[in-house]
Specification:
Elements: H1 3-13, H2 16-23, E1 29-34, H3 39-50, E2 54-55, H4 58-66, E3 76-83, H5 92-98, E4 107-111, H6 133-138, H7 141-150, H8 167-173, E5 178-181, H9 194-212, E6 218-220, H10 228-236, E7 241-243, E8 262-263, H11 270-277, H12 280-287
Parallel strand pairs: 1-3, 1-8, 2-3, 3-4, 4-5, 6-7
Helix pairs in contact: 1-11, 3-11, 9-10
């Protein structure tokens, strides 16, 4: 067992995650962030979480918030996936086994509308020997695209194989999954010009509604990054809800366009999952002064 795994085992069996669930999460709504877990890991993950929380549909929570209806199940938990990775399709049999319709099923997948249904690739998965994706994310969007082009990547290039869900896969999954918006090409919104941010936010929802017939009303901010300008653009584009990666929990009174989420790193370790789902890990990181490389709110590019 690695030291990393041992740490999460000790934290889990310390009883602290249980205390957090019963004393804090019991009266709040927790949203978890996943990306690209395997079917085997997903099966174990869903069973583990369902035994400890009440799995809740994001749309149900949105309706409760808009109606100021505070009657929510204790320890409510919402499961979200960002990007629309092609391996998400492997989870469909798990969803179908539950025989729960999309209006109730507790999984939301936020799609990059300019990448799904194509053979375009995610820029942050492109091999970049000179720059890490976290470094590129902090640069102005125009400069980031120029640097990627110098490394042989453009966001409009079609490759041999898709990295994101295909049109057919999305259609097949529609009865079981709440599909929502994750912009067009996954930029860091505060690093975009006004026009680009407007197109990324509004264009994504419009494309998903028109081309896929999806009732889109929620957006996940790429990397969790957003500014006040981006929030206003989301309102103008008709979104009811926006999810961040700001650490914490939610109530009916939380700003719907600034919902908090907890990342769980697509872990295969159930001890790590339990610790991170409780929010304990993020709390400890902040208490100990750990770096948080994403999810901040900052001024937009001039």
């Amino acid at each position: 067992m690695t030291r990393h795994a041992l740490l999460f085992k000790v934290l889990r069996f310390s009883g602290l995650p249980l205390l957090v669930r019963e004393l804090i999460q019991r009266r709040r709504v927790t949203i978890l962030l996943f990306h690209d877990i395997s079917r085997e890991t997903a099966a174990r993950t869903f069973d583990c979480l369902a035994a400890r929380y009440h799995l809740l549909n994001l749309q149900t929570f949105i309706r409760k918030c808009k109606a100021n209806d505070r009657r929510l199940p204790p320890k409510s938990l919402i499961l979200t996936f960002d990007d629309g990775h092609i391996r998400n399709y492997e989870l469909l049999p798990l969803f179908q086994e539950k025989k729960i319709p999309v209006t109730i099923f507790p999984v939301t997948i936020f799609l990059c509308a300019g990448i799904v249904g194509t053979k375009r690739h995610f820029w942050f998965r492109h091999t970049a020997p000179k720059y890490r994706s976290s470094q590129l994310r902090r640069t102005p969007s125009v400069q980031r695209r120029r640097l990627l082009e110098e490394m042989g990547f453009t966001q409009d290039t079609e490759y041999d194989r898709p990295q994101a869900l295909t049109r057919g896969q999305i259609e097949e999954m529609k009865p079981w999954v709440d599909f929502q918006s994750h912009t067009l090409f996954h930029p860091c919104l505060p690093r975009c010009s006004y026009a680009e941010a407007r197109d990324e936010i509004g264009g994504s929802g419009q494309r998903l509604r028109q081309e896929y017939g999806l009732p889109v009303n929620a957006i996940s901010y790429p990397h969790g990054d957003y500014s006040d300008r981006d929030i206003e653009l989301c309102r103008q584009a008709g979104y009811d809800c926006g999810v961040t990666v700001n650490c914490g929990y939610n109530t009916v009174g939380t700003d719907l366009l600034r919902l908090k989420r907890l990342p769980v790193n697509d872990t295969e370790d159930m001890n790590e999952l339990i610790v991170k789902a409780s929010g304990l890990w993020e709390f400890l990181k902040r208490t100990l002064g750990g770096n948080h490389e994403y999810g901040w709110t900052e001024e937009v590019e001039p």
